[in-house]
Amino acid sequence: MEYLAVLIPSIGIGVIFYFVMRWIFRADGAERRARANAEEDASNWYEKIKSRHDDREHFGKSNQ
Predict the structure, then answer these.
(1) What parts of the sequence cross the membrane (predicted)?
(2) How many helices (H) and strands (E) are present in the chain, helices listed first?
(3) pTM
(4) CA proximity to 26, closest of 37, 18, 15
């Protein structure tokens, strides 16, 4: 029984560590998916703008 009392704190810390790391990795994955979606959306938006305005400069100095 003594051995169990000695191991319980370490097991408890290990379980807490597992859940914290799981939470961090899931948050990282969600952030990467959100960033990829935002980049794809911005790329699609820019391509639409580019195709609408043909060869004019889009976001810089005008050619006038």
Answers:
(1) 6-25
(2) 1, 0
(3) 0.57
(4) 18
